[in-house]
Amino acid sequence: MTIARAPQDTPGSRWTYLFLLLMLAFSAFPLYWMFVISTGDESAVSKTPPQAIPGNQLLTNLREVFTLQDVFFSAGLVNSVIVATVTTVAQLFFCSLAGFAFAKLRFKGRNALMVFVVLTLTIPNQLAVVALYILTGKLGLNGTLLAVIAPGLVTAFGVFYMRQFIVGAVPDELVEAARVDGATVTRIYRSVVLPAIRPALAVLGLLTFVATWNDFQWPLIQLQGTDYPTSMVALSDLASGNYVLYRRVLSGALVATLPLLVVLFLGGRQIVRGIMEGAVKS
Q1: Considering its fold, how many domains does the chain have in total?
Q2: Fewer CB within 10 Å: C terminus or N terminus of the chain?
Q3: Are residues 154 and 98 in contact, defined by beta-carbon separation less than 8 angstroms?
Q4: Tens digits of per-residue pLDDT, 61-79?
Q5: pTM of structure
């Protein structure tokens, strides 16, 4: 009788782990340095070598950030939560619905329309800013949160990603069996498709939330100078002026980064699971 031995680390695997730890430290250092500067005074920014030990001024710096009446940083955080949440929920619904239609429904022009959707991915967002601003102006939305939310309700990437996942995750036989049983298209989408694509929904939701939270250009165009900016626009206001207090700017950046870290920590496993399932099925 032979006893199976647990696989031992080889020199190659140990070097791999060491390399990954170094990359992790290298990637995390800017976040740590941002935290260090946000806890110190203004002289901590220019110290050589860089300050590595946190100070005791964090609460003072945060108080300054949240009490500046010309920045409205607290309103920016609330508005970012609203914009990111609404955009994420809308994309999950519309992109999964469109992906289901492209993957499992038969209609005239389906392939040509899908090619058109994919081709829109090659167009930089900057080229559409002027036309989009004129359109939102004609609708009377300029300077409002609706103007920031509306362009992100559905994206070509989300439709393409959900379509590709549904093709592999939902067998045609399962859809046909549901039709034979008398299920409507809405029932098939709700009872057959949605349970099978939860990992993909988690991945798309996390990517959408992070991208929307970090978006700067379009919210800056729409909300610059208003009393209800997003957190990124509020951070740009903190960094503007003839003399920039970097301890204040990095304190605001620290607060604006914390929600992303929480979301990524809570949903990191779902991202890995969704990517691995998509890789296996493809």
Answers
A1: 1
A2: N
A3: yes
A4: 888 888 876 668 888 899 9
A5: 0.84
